[in-house]
Amino acid sequence: MKKTGQDEKVRINKYLAMCGIASRRAADQMVLEGRVIVNGGIADEPGLKVDPKRDEVVVDGRELAKPEARKVYILFNKPRNVITTSHDERDREQIFDFIDVRERVFPVGRLDRKTTGLLILTNDGTLAHRLMHPSSQVQKEYLATLDAKFPGSMLQKLTGGMRLKDTGEKVSPCRAKILDDGMSVLVSIHEGKNHQVRRMFSSLGFEVKRLDRVAYAGLTPGELRRGEWRYLSRNEVDRLHRLCGKD
Questions:
Q1: Which domains does the chain have, with CATH numbers?
Q2: What is the mean pLDDT of residues 52-63?
Q3: pLDDT tens, 72-81?
Q4: What residues contact 229, with CB distance under 8 A and at least 6 apart?
Q5: What positions does the domain RNA-binding S4 occupy (predicted)?
Q6: Under DSSP, is residue 111 helix (H, G, I), strand (E, B) or coil?
Q7: Which helix (H) or strand (E) holds 41?
Q8: Which residues are identified as catalytic?
Q9: In this structure, are residues 237 and 73 in contact, taking their beta carbons and an 8 Å threshold?
């Protein structure tokens, strides 16, 4: 029996989960907060159903890429002063000025404008959500260049699960290595709090002058120069699924 258009609709929370935006419970809260717009109107009812193929859904001002039959996985080496949003009132350079693909993809997490380095982009919402969820413990490695030499005596404070000075928020323990010049520190975290690495160093009295994400989930730039991108191989995609606990 052929499905009708009504049968093909799904609850808005399931759709947001399919797009990798949030868990269903968190998506319900986003709807109640008025952050979700469907076909131009605010969706304020968690039970609302949408057509994944036809309806336009916008979250926090960003239109979502629809779940597609053909899954696309991209690795991008973001330059400095390029933003990760798809719309910008100030007409600044965006990552989609560099990436030209037919499918509508979105970044897995974000890097702030000044931070350079690796981004994964995909239309596989399920994998994106798993990569970003803290329970997956996916490691992200950053090279931070500081305004002064970082002493070895402070390494335990940095890695031991510190509290951020600006909010008192506690972050999980991480790994770090001071490089030879002492002005650069390699930091590996699995959380994704806003500006986390910069705020960690700021809490210890250091300013991050340059920040580069040099590895994400085991992926590294390789031969990718700033502003360049490539598709992930099948083996790389399979490894990301395994890393997130999906065989």
A1: 10-63 (3.10.290.10), 73-134+219-243 (3.30.70.580), 139-216 (3.30.70.1560)
A2: 84
A3: 999 999 999 9
A4: 74, 75, 76, 77, 98, 99, 121
A5: 10-70
A6: coil
A7: strand 41-42
A8: 112
A9: yes
